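I'm curious: can you give me some protein's one-letter sequence along with its backbone structure tokens because I've never seen that pairing?
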Amino acid sequence: MQTLFIDIKQTDTQAFYSAGIGREQDHQLNRFVRRDRIHWLDSSHTPALAYLQWIEQLRLCLNRELFLGLFDYECHYAHYPQGAFYKKHLDSFRGSSNRRLTSILYLNPNWQAQDGGELVMYPSEGEAVLETVQPTFGKMVFFLSEEFPHEVLPAGRSRYSLTGWFRINNNNGVNLDPPVWDLS
């Protein structure tokens, strides 16, 4: 985790871009909904390779033990500058239901409760809070992407995480969705 923290801090701020909502032709920036900045990772990103290899072993185990049919994993670094937030949402795109399991690894040494930036989880129906998670260094959270609405409260200082989604294959019989990474 220390390697990931060093990497996210050393990644050029120009490599991060304002996160949007929606995908492809539906993608748009909406600063009322979210203000974080993201940097997508893949298997060519050497500092994240050990993490991605570990996550691949986890994917295989989840499939073997829980029969989830997880096909791939996509992830990005997320940086919430001071004051940034992400309002209540689900981790799925309209018309596409291939994200099954969300993972968040927090990369915030010395995080204190007064720093804010908590993840707040809600039930699929209603407004009751199920859980509030402090984004402390090394904490990892998993939840069903399409079942649990959640939000990130405003951060009182820069907040970092590696956020990802285990996905299933929504293929059309010709193309694989998502494409497969080579982690060798």
Remarks:
- Residues 1 and 137 are 8 Å apart (CA to CA).
- Residues 49-66 form the longest helix (18 residues).
- The chain has a mean pLDDT of 89.
- DSSP finds two helices and ten strands in the chain.
